[in-house]
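Hi everyone, sorry if this is the wrong subforum. Our group has a chain we'd like a structural model of before ordering constructs, and none of us has done structure prediction before. Sequence below.
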Amino acid sequence: MNILIIEDEYNLADAIKSMLKKENYIVKICTDGNNGEDEALSGIYDLILLDVMLPGKNGFEILKSIRKENINSKVIMLTAKANIDDKMEGFNEGANDYLTKPFHMDELVARVNILLKGTNSNKSVITFEDINLDIVHSSLENKNNNKTAIVSIPDNII
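Answer:
Right subforum, don't worry. Here is the predicted structure as C-alpha cells:
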C-alpha cells in the first residue's frame, strides 16, 4: 500500500513515515502544497495524509483538486485547525477522516489501518494475459484455447 504524506513540518512527516514503514507501508513525503498536489494527482496512492496549512497551496484546495479529478485515494486531514467549521469543510470536500494536532501516533496508525483494511480485497485475483492467480483460494487458472486448467497451490508457497 502506498501512502503520501503532505506535511510542511518535516520532522513530524518523517516520524509518521517511520511508524508507517514499520507497518509495511510504502511512504513518500512532500513538504509543500504544490508538489504535494502534483504527487497526489498521480493517482498511485492508496491513502494521503494531508495537512491543511501548507506553503504554496492549502490542504483544502488540494483535497478539492483530488476529488475533482476523481482520485479515489483515502484522505486523512492532519491539522491544528480544530474548529468544527474546518472539520466540516474537510469532510464536505471529501476527506475520509480528520485528525487534529497534537495527536498520538498510535491513533494515527490505527486510523490508517482501518481506512486501508479491505482495500486489497478486490485484488485477490491477479491476472496476466490468460492466467489468473487466486491468492485467497490458492489456485492458478490458465485459460488457453477455451480450455481451463485449475491447479491448487500449497499454502506455504503464497
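For your construct planning: The mean pLDDT is 86. The beta strands are 2-6, 26-30, 47-51, 74-79, 97-100, 125-128, 131-134, 139-144, 147-152.
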